[in-house]
Amino acid sequence: MGDPISSSSQVSDESVSGDSGELVSGNSDESVSGDSEESVSGGSDELASKSSDELVVNVNSHTGEPETGFDPLLGWGCGHVNFEPLIQSTLFKSADDGSIINDLATNYSVSSDGKNWTVYIRDDVRFTDGENLTAEDVAFTFNTAIGSNSELDMSNLEKATAINNTAVEFKLKEPQSSFIWRLRYVGIVPEHAYKKETYGSNPIGSGPYKLVEWDKGQQAILELNENYYGKKPYFKKITMLFLDKDTALAAVKSGDVDIAEIEISHANQTVDGYKLVSLPAARAQGLSFPMQNNTGKKSLQGDTIGNNVTADIAIRKALNIGIDRKALLEGVIYGKGAVEYTGVDQRNFGNPEAKVNDSNPEEAKKILENAGWKDTDGDGIREKNGTKAEFKLYYSASDQTRQALSVAVSEQAKELGIKIDLVGASWDEIYANQYSSAVLYAYSSIDTFNLYQQYHSKEADDTYRNPGLYNNSVVDGYLETALKSTDQDQATKYWKLAAYDGNTGFGPAGDATWLWLVTIDYLYMADETLDMGTPQRNAGADVLGNIYEWKRVDTASPTSK
């Protein structure tokens, strides 16, 4: 397990297909569907005959090979970082600006108590086997999803019921404004043709593409669904290769792919015939701070709770104000991202008022001095009442970028008189120490429910959510009001207040619960002939989400680069 991954859309790099240096395992000789034996991932000679409307992709975060196949109820297309399962349709989808718009749905309403959602769907949609898609299929999909896969988190859904062929009612246990995201990312499967054991290998859907071949460990081939109800994509065939990022870069250099995701460390590389595409994903990197003092308490697993240094708001405030985020952005991730203050700066529910002005070490030092943190023995480390301004920072030992960020932050903190001891570790070690030490986590919070999980008070249950054990009754109130709201605009107002209301909040202007640093873009090498349209805002991980807009602007053979 990698970074914290929520049941919906808060995700991590490691959660998709293993470490970047690990090839996806599987029997490369096993063809699951279709009868083609030719592997498109071979050499450039094979691609020389490829039509201009065929696309070869290796997008690790999106097309990492799904262990259980192409089944949205078992994680395909919904539980990682992408929200466009391609083979299945969803009730809602994202517009270019990131807002939620209709897909199968034509409209929806929410009851006054927030517990009943009614979604109305199109009547002109067919599955690829020719059967009509009705509200019965929608209800079946969501009822089956309850308890089927933890990534889907349908724990608040009591039951879905088809009212008629074009209307389905979702009965919730508790009001949940963020339920719109549950309706956003689950691909609809056919009740008449769904079997958990076999569906993933031979999926039937109503999306823009259909699976025609899956060579486990190598590739999956999708072809255009000619009966698709929506805007038909330009590309009639998509070959998804299952390569790790390093191998994918080699495939780029040999001209074997149209687009491939690459590591941030390769940001300055150039390849003839390809362009570097940098897409924001609001993938925030930051330090979680233990918010409680160490009083001897333990978690349910017996792990230590509390840190007497990070529990002092002066330490947290000083770091948030003193750290130069722009230097981290330019020096560690080559400018391929943005500075980050609240973890959700780029979301519409982010609150600009919760930010602070950073890169001000003198102001940070004043905060520390005024709070009693002084270097009285001249060793460069401040102390207060006999306690050194020193704490551990854990990071994933397998992630070079996080290591580099951790080193850079510790060096800047040293200038403020704060000593940060770095510990590269496994995720099991990290989780065991998250309540007593800082951790460099990465979050891509799209679903607003992640804010509730991340900042609402809780017990030390040894899960990654709210790793600092933040507890603020005012913030809890805002989060609860936002979650119970039946109006999305009203909910957004309270999500923002939770970050900062002018007095308190989880953001750096309030309680400074985290030291958010930067967001990191997703980087792709794309064939120069590929026109990717307008990528969805802050959805760099879901690069195929706007496949409907993609086209090839030059039909010359890719091998003529």
Strand and helix layout:
Layout: H1 14-17, H2 44-47, E1 54-58, H3 60-63, E2 92-94, E3 100-102, E4 105-110, E5 116-121, H4 135-145, E6 157-164, E7 167-172, H5 179-185, E8 209-215, E9 219-224, E10 237-241, H6 245-253, E11 259-262, E12 274-279, E13 284-288, H7 313-322, H8 325-332, E14 337-339, H9 361-370, E15 383-384, E16 387-388, E17 390-396, H10 400-416, E18 419-425, H11 427-433, E19 438-443, H12 449-455, H13 473-484, H14 488-499, E20 514-520, E21 522-527, E22 530-531, E23 551-552
Parallel strand pairs: 1-10, 1-11, 17-18, 17-19
Antiparallel strand pairs: 2-3, 4-5, 5-7, 6-7, 8-9, 9-10, 11-21, 12-21, 13-19, 13-20, 14-20, 15-16, 22-23
Helix pairs in contact: 7-9, 12-13, 13-14
Descriptive notes:
With 561 residues, the chain is α+β, with helices and mostly antiparallel strands. It contains 14 helices and 23 strands. It has helices spanning 14-17, 44-47, 60-63, 135-145, 179-185, 245-253, 313-322, 325-332, 361-370, 400-416, 427-433, 449-455, 473-484, 488-499; strands at 54-58, 92-94, 100-102, 105-110, 116-121, 157-164, 167-172, 209-215, 219-224, 237-241, 259-262, 274-279, 284-288, 337-339, 383-384, 387-388, 390-396, 419-425, 438-443, 514-520, 522-527, 530-531, 551-552. The protein has a seven-stranded mixed β-sheet with strand order 8-9-10-1-11-21-12. Strands 14-20-13-19-17-18 form a six-stranded mixed β-sheet. Strands 4-5-7-6 form a four-stranded antiparallel β-sheet, covered by helices on one side. Helix 12 (449-455) runs antiparallel to helix 13 and helix 13 (473-484) packs antiparallel against helix 14. The longest helix is centred in the C-terminal third of the chain and has 17 residues, at 400-416. Residues 4-49 and 557-561 have low confidence and may be disordered.
